[in-house]
Amino acid sequence: MTSHTLARFDSSREMQEDCAFCRIVAGQSPAHVVYEDEENVAFLDILPLRPGHTLVIPKKHVQQLSHLDGATAASLSQALVRTTQAIGRDAKATPTPSTNALALMRLGHGRDELDDDEAQELCAKIRRAAHEIAQKPAAKL
Length: 141
What we know:
Number of helices: 5
Number of domains: 1
Structural class: mainly alpha
């Protein structure tokens, strides 16, 4: 491998120019953002498997989840929980963990492009629900 090739796999870099997610985080590519905090962002998939199909990612570039440090992983998990609660609550969509099996179950069904008007309406519902959830006091164990 050349040093140029190795640089593409350097997950310690904050942003990768050829990473679609990094471009969304930097505001260089459009996205229908449903949740955002200092370390994470959640946005509607542009080719959803079903209504409410949302991607929750850390703002810091990583090649794969196993490369996350503990603090970033914990923050991402919290963002994931808040986002899925909001999606399930007001968007009337069913939160489903991302797995390869999910994609295989839909094999042959195709994916429709996200409609901007529908996305904006769904985004607003999810953001409202996420805000209300964030305002509730955390459960005590």
